[in-house]
Write a structure and sequence with these properties.
The complex is a heterodimer of chains A (268) and B (350).
Chain A (H helix, E strand, L loop, with lengths): L6 H26 L3 H8 L2 H34 L5 H13 L2 H12 L5 H8 L8 H25 L3 H9 L4 H12 L1 H17 L2 H7 L9 H10 L3 H30 L4
Helix pairs in contact in A: 2-13, 3-7, 3-10, 4-7, 5-11, 7-10, 7-11, 8-9, 10-13, 12-13
Chain B lengths: L1 E10 L2 E10 L4 E5 L6 H9 L6 E6 L2 E2 L10 E5 L10 H11 L4 H15 L14 H13 L5 E5 L7 H18 L2 E5 L3 H7 L2 E6 L2 E6 L1 H6 L4 H6 L4 E9 L4 E5 L4 E5 L4 E7 L5 E3 L9 E13 L2 E7 L3 E7 H7 L6 E6 L4 E4 L2
Parallel strand pairs in B: 3-8, 3-9, 6-7, 7-8
Antiparallel strand pairs in B: 1-2, 1-4, 4-5, 9-10, 11-12, 11-14, 12-13, 14-20, 15-19, 16-17, 16-19, 17-18
Classes of the chains: A mainly alpha (268), B alpha+beta (350).
Chain lengths: 268, 350
């Protein structure tokens, strides 16, 4: 006869079952609330289509920028010894624990022609960054770069520097050892970083709201569309935006979990 | 041909200080020393990975101290192979030749030839993860050898392998050394590596060289405790040496005193190999200077031989053959005599 699980084990299992049921119930509510016709009408509406297009394009652009900046920074943090490294690490990580709203306000103060010489410099050259789609890219980039750096850094740390040493003795320069050996070996970690940064960029709200504003059909990303429609009482439109975001998050998660893992064993 | 002069390198907790070492062309040198002695950092500095703080490195007469690793013509093999997981064995082995823009057909031919020599030509299309440790190490050796380096640096190349494979790769290394004439510098923690491979052994401690010599010299007069333990010295004691006549000294241990051949005085360490000690039931007449009464404390049967721990004021470990143990009817509590020559006592400072 099987012995019954201990009290502690039973408790842990009960709590996890409760958490899982809660998550399923909450998201199922979102999915099943609107009628099918209503949902299709909303998903195909011009506003949602605009929001999807804007979100996808700004997120792609900000993720690309993020990647370009994060890879060298993460590599330096993972490999080089330099003065003040731990402080740089701390500073780079600061935005992680900061509410995106605060980052948004800081960016607004930094880039607005009304408050900063940098903003004045850009506007005097005809570049109005604040309250434009460009501001969306800047906000997403600023909020997500620390995440990407963190993920890329641990990806590089997981590759022993000795691979590079061997590559150097085999004729590689520093840069080509990085390109031909470290980068491919850190591939799955970097891939996870890109997917996470992109899906977070798709969903970024606070910083975007501050820097780009919530202007319908101009800076209306999916989260902004959700917010605007919610505040005007159009629940179906809001839910349509929310569902798209849910699907994107779910897909990103699955990609990271399965592709990332499979990628690690792809050479086996 | 590889000359290291007054080399100092510091990397956090590991360092090498004012190190001098000359290695002749084609020589097989084994580098010994405890963890943290600076062996790996020395190898990596020779390879050009770390920058020397002071001193210089000469290879075949030319100064390579500030030359980047890719220009030095020095090969490197690590304990954990460091094969590139995203490349097949053939791609790994051909990596160096590709960097040197060798024609594709030539790369293929040379990779195959080297793989044949190492007995891994049937594995060329496989990925490293699917290979055994021994196969991976052969591939790593092949990868380094394909560039025909003038110096091959090996950082514990056999440590991750099982005993049998270690034997095989060791034989491979000996053959490579003889056939190619490459100068080899090999870090090891295995006694057998020194014995079966090395022309010379270099002992390091705390970033400095403490002893250089042939394996026999190292074995007969170990300069440090680490080496004594490394070479299988078991009876290690601390004592005080006092000179007697004719180069002999009396060394007072905690519990008894023994006679040794040494010039050291004061605080010393002594070591006696278990196989250099004799057990008898009666006091025997011999030229041996040390003859101590003792009691058998423990008898450990390890198959081929019997290890006997006896108490003669200090505890000695003595090795007997199975027959010898049976003849003496060795058992716990038995009164015996321990005999060993003064020359069998290795004395060193620490």
């Amino acid at each position: 006869m099987r012995t019954p699980p201990s009290f502690f084990r039973g408790l842990c299992i009960c709590v996890s079952v409760f958490v899982v049921l809660l998550l399923v119930a909450v998201f199922a509510g979102l999915i099943f609330y609107p009628t099918a016709e209503d949902l299709i009408r909303c998903l195909t509406s011009a506003e949602i289509r605009y929001a999807v297009l804007l979100s996808v394009s700004t997120a792609l652009l900000s993720t690309a920028l993020c990647f370009l900046v994060s890879v060298p920074t993460a590599y330096a943090l993972a490999r080089f010894r330099f003065f003040g490294k731990s402080w740089v690490n701390l500073l780079v990580n600061l935005p992680l624990s900061l509410p995106p709203l605060v980052a948004g306000v800081a960016l607004l103060i930094f880039l607005s022609p009304a408050t900063s010489p940098i903003g004045q410099f850009f506007s005097s050259h005809g570049m109005y960054l604040v309250y434009t789609p460009a501001a969306i890219v800047i906000a997403q980039f600023f909020v997500n770069t620390p995440y990407m750096i963190r993920i890329a850094r641990s990806a590089f740390l997981s590759v022993s520097p000795r691979y590079e040493y061997v590559a150097r003795t085999l004729g590689c320069s520093e840069f080509s050892a990085f390109l031909k050996v470290t980068l491919p070996l850190a591939k799955s970690g970097l891939f996870a970083g890109i997917v996470i940064a992109w899906s977070k960029a798709m969903g970024e709200f606070g910083a975007v709201l501050m820097l780009a504003g919530a202007i319908a059909m101009k800076t209306e990303t999916l989260p902004i569309a959700l917010y605007l429609n919610m505040s005007t009482g159009d629940l179906s439109m809001a839910i349509a935006a929310a569902l798209i975001l849910l699907v994107i998050s779910g897909t990103a998660l699955i990609l990271v979990e399965f592709f990332g893992r499979e990628n690690g064993d792809v050479y086996a | 041909m590889l000359e290291i002069e007054h080399l100092s390198v510091s990397l956090g907790e590991f360092s090498v200080t004012d190190l001098n070492l000359h290695i002749k062309r084609g020589q097989y040198t084994v580098l010994l020393g405890p963890t943290g002695a600076g062996k790996t950092i020395l190898l990596e500095t020779i390879a050009g990975i770390h920058r020397a703080d002071t001193g210089r490195i000469l290879l075949n007469g030319s100064d390579i101290t500030h030359m980047p690793p890719e220009k030095r013509g020095i090969g490197m093999v690590y304990q954990d192979y460091m094969l590139f997981a995203h490349m097949t064995v053939a791609q790994n082995m051909g990596f160096g030749l590709r960097q040197h823009r060798c024609p594709k057909a030539e790369i293929e031919a040379r990779v195959f030839q080297t793989a044949e020599m190492l007995g891994i030509s049937h594995l060329l299309s496989r990925y490293p993860k699917t290979l055994s440790g021994g196969e991976q190490q052969r591939a790593a050796l092949g990868r380094a050898l394909l560039l025909q380096p003038s110096v091959l640096l090996l950082d514990e190349p056999l440590s991750a392998l099982d005993t049998q494979t270690r034997e095989k790769i060791r034989a491979e290394l000996r053959r490579i050394s003889q056939d190619t004439g490459v100068t080899i510098l090999h870090i090891t923690h295995h006694f057998e590596d020194m014995y079966s491979l090395a022309d010379y052994a270099v002992v390091m401690r705390e970033g400095q060289i403490v002893q250089i010599g042939t394996p026999d010299e190292i074995l007969s007069s170990p300069a440090t405790d680490f080496i004594a333990e490394f070479t299988g010295m078991e009876n290690l004691f601390t004592g005080t040496a006092r000179p007697l006549s004719n180069g002999l000294s009396e060394i007072c241990l905690e519990g008894c005193s023994i006679v040794a051949v040494t010039e050291y005085t004061g605080q010393v360490r002594v070591g006696i190999r278990p196989e250099n000690m004799l057990l008898s039931l009666e006091r025997v007449t011999s030229s041996a200077q040390n003859m101590l009464p003792a009691t058998v404390c423990q008898v450990i049967d390890s198959g081929a031989y019997v290890k006997v721990i006896v108490d003669a004021g200090v505890r000695f470990s003595v090795v007997l053959t199975k027959q010898g143990a049976e003849q003496l009817k060795i058992s716990t509590g038995l009164q015996v005599w321990v005999t060993f020559k003064a020359a069998a006592v290795h004395v060193y400072t620490y």
